[in-house]
Write a structure and sequence with these properties.
Helices cover 82% and strands 0% of the residues. By secondary structure, it is an all-alpha fold.
């Protein structure tokens, strides 16, 4: 579980660091990173809900406010986790000393995570629509 949390923190850090380097502190990179991390967590949860629907027939996404509520809860949890007591600064400090080699390797891990997550969601949605 700790490894998953650390990977999630790193994913947040990568977005935060990119925003900080691109647009500086004035554009509040902590909020952009919060939105990015929340969106990815929501996409993964939504993919899981579609998968459960397809295997069990229990409707979790269609005609339900559950995805909206889940998205809001993820956003609130992330805001508390990353922004409360400026924890994002602690996370940035923890990961900012990585070597160039490690940064490149971790960048590709993050990109693979994003592409695979989006691919799974798109494939599940397409599969779900083809069944109707």
């Amino acid at each position: 579980m700790r490894l998953l949390i650390r990977a999630y923190e790193y994913f947040y850090f990568r977005i935060f660091d990119w925003q900080l380097r691109s647009w500086s502190e004035t554009y509040h990179p902590q909020y952009a990173a919060l939105i990015g991390a929340t969106w990815m967590a929501f996409m993964n949860l939504y993919s899981l809900a579609i998968l459960i629907e397809n295997f069990t027939g229990v409707l979790l996404t269609k005609g339900s406010s559950l995805p909206i509520v889940a998205g809001l809860l993820i956003g609130i949890a992330n805001a508390v986790f990353f922004l409360f007591q400026s924890r994002y600064k602690e996370i940035a400090k923890m990961f900012s000393q990585e070597s160039s080699r490690k940064r490149k390797m971790h960048f590709w891990y993050c990109m693979i995570y994003v592409v695979v997550s989006m691919g799974i969601l798109i494939a599940l949605v397409e599969y779900d629509h083809s069944r109707q």
